[in-house]
Amino acid sequence: MKAIIISIAAICLICNTLPGQTAMVFDDFEGNGTITTWFGDNCNIDIAFPNMHKTGLNKSNTVLAYHDIGGQYANVRFQISKPFELEENNNFSLKIYVPSNGITGNAPHQISFKLQNGNSATPWTTQCEIIKPITLDSWQTLNFDFGSDDYLNFDPTSGDPTQRSDFNRIVIQVNGENNNDEVLAFIDDVLYDGENTRRS
Q1: Which of 171, 17, 51, 182 shows the shortest CA–CA distance to 105?
Q2: Which CATH number fits domain 2-192: 3.90.180.10, 2.60.120.260, 1.10.1760.20, 3.30.470.20?
Q3: HSE-up of 116 (CA within 13 Å, CB side)?
Q4: Alpha-carbon distance 26 to 36, whole Å?
Q5: How confident is the model at residue 196 (pLDDT cuts 50, 70, 90)?
Q6: What is the pLDDT of residues 25-71, one digit of tens each?
Q7: Using H for helix, E for strand and C for coil, what is the string for the chain?
Q8: Tens digit of pLDDT for each residue in 125-158?
Q9: Residue 22: pLDDT over 60
Q10: pLDDT tens across 71-100, in order?
Q11: What's the burial of 100, exposed, middle or buried (CB within 10 Å: 0-12/13-18/19+)?
């Protein structure tokens, strides 16, 4: 896995050094990523947390720790400077581990991956999300394909996400919203399979 991450980092470095080229969007939480704007909304995060579950799919040293301590709309998010190009490249992926002893309440075990316009005064009204079930106590890789997966638009008139050019924010939410349940989750290897729009 480290070899793959190093290769991604090398490609990213090359892309970033060529004028007018595009930049990959990824984070392995070991200092090689291009995402610098992680933010915990109603939730505690640590973007360099020791991986306490070096098993199965993920033997990385550090991960993102997501700790919802009962926030009604808790989530983690990041934003890029220009919108994602989703017409041809519309797949995102990540690894997640949720320990069963780190959750409370009866909320469904799920992850919601949301695209939003972070420049809007009310970004949640612009969102398009994909919700997937998660398995507890094991690392799993999840893909969120906005070209083929079932998605839900906050505004039903928004249309196909692959035809939109305003998404520049990603929001990740575990075990739903509008509840006060607690969730401890670990996230790693966040990756967008395309590239963000060309730099000026």
Answers
A1: 182
A2: 2.60.120.260
A3: 21
A4: 10
A5: low
A6: 999 999 999 999 999 999 999 999 999 999 999 999 999 999 999 99
A7: CHHHHHHHHHHHHHHHHCCCCCCCCEECCCCCCCCCCCEEECCEEEEEEECCCCECCECCCEEEEEEEECCCCCEEEEECCCCECCCCCCEEEEEEECCHHHECCCCCCEEEEEEECCCCCCHHHHCEEEEEECCCCCCEEEEEECCCCCCEECCCCCCCHHHCCCCCEEEEEECCCCCCCEEEEEEEEEEECCCECCCC
A8: 999 999 999 999 999 999 999 999 999 999 999 9
A9: no
A10: 999 999 999 999 999 998 999 999 999 999
A11: exposed
Find tokens 């509840």 and name the residue.
179
User: Average pLDDT in the 109-125 region?
Assistant: 97
Query: What is the overall mean pLDDT for the chain?
Result: 89
Question: Any idea where the domains of the chain sit in the sequence?
Answer: 2-192
**Residues 57/141, Cβ–Cβ less than 8 Å:** yes
Tokens describing residue 137: 């106590």
Per the structure block, which two tokens stand in for 190?
């966040």
Sheet holding 152-153, edge to edge: 39-41, 75-79, 169-174, 110-116, 128-133, 152-153
